[in-house]
Amino acid sequence: MGKKVNPKIMRVGITRGWDSKWFSDQKTYISKLKQDLAVRRFLLKEFKEAGVDRVDIERSAKDKIMVNVHTAKPGILIGRGGAGIEDLKKKIHTKFLKNFRMNEINLTITEVNRPNLSAQILVQSMILEIEKRMPFKRVMKQVIGRVERAGALGIKVMVSGRLNGAEIARTEMLSAGKLPLQTLRADIDYARGVAHTTYGTIGVRAWVYKGEIFEKSSDEKGEVVKGQ
């Protein structure tokens, strides 16, 4: 009864796909998985202010890798004249992808259309404001207001730790709308992060309910259409 399941992993194969798309044998699977995790961790940490939503990684059978960064502010990553992409590509190659050549790494930047509906971007913005010593309740209320104006059907945010420097750690939660966690067709975005303050770490979590995803046959050819 007390166990919790990540809303994203619960819906993989039903309404969501994998962020990493590749096949591997047993010998190289662990090393490839470590590379993916390290690249994602680096991009999320290095570009907090850019609002990175997710990082899709695809590997081809011909030893090529494609990294697609979805961000709310692509200009921060691209830089002037695209120089930022080349610098970022060199950093990723030097730190994590040494087994690839530079011409085998394809880095693309994609802009997120509705950043206020991305749980990861919301968590990053909350972390930045909490680390600037903004009152946590004001931060939570501002986030809920932005999500509601963006058209979400439900939102829940939760922070836990020594809030406002209190001696005893506690958990605070605010929610609005509905959040059907057990409905598999519900499109729920989830993210979590940690804010580092002078009083210690504060955990931040967010759930965003965007609507329902369903499949139905639309014509005689049997094509499938996804609706919301």
Unreliable stretches covering 5 or more consecutive residues: 217-228
CATH architecture annotation name of the largest domain: 2-Layer Sandwich
Mean pLDDT: 88
Query: What would you give as the CATH superfamily of the largest domain?
Result: Ribosomal protein S3, C-terminal domain
Per DSSP, the total helix count is 6
Structural class: alpha+beta
Q: List the secondary-structure elements in sequence, H or E.
A: HEHEEHHEHHEEEEEE
Number of domains: 2
* DSSP, total strands: 10
- Measured between the Cα atoms of the first and last residue, the distance is 30 Å
Shape verdict? globular
Radius of gyration: 20 Å
The profile of the biggest β sheet is:
4 strands, mixed
CATH fold description of the largest domain: Ribosomal protein S3 C-terminal domain
Helical fraction: 25-40%
Strand content: 25-35%
Major sheet: arrangement of strands: 1-2-3-4
Itemize the secondary structure elements and their pairings.
Layout (H helix, E strand, L loop, with lengths): L6 H4 L9 E2 L4 H21 L5 E8 L5 E7 L2 H5 L4 H13 L9 E7 L7 H13 L4 H15 L3 E8 L8 E8 L8 E12 L2 E13 L1 E4 L6 E4 L1
Parallel strand pairs: 1-2, 3-4
Antiparallel strand pairs: 2-3, 5-6, 5-8, 7-8, 9-10
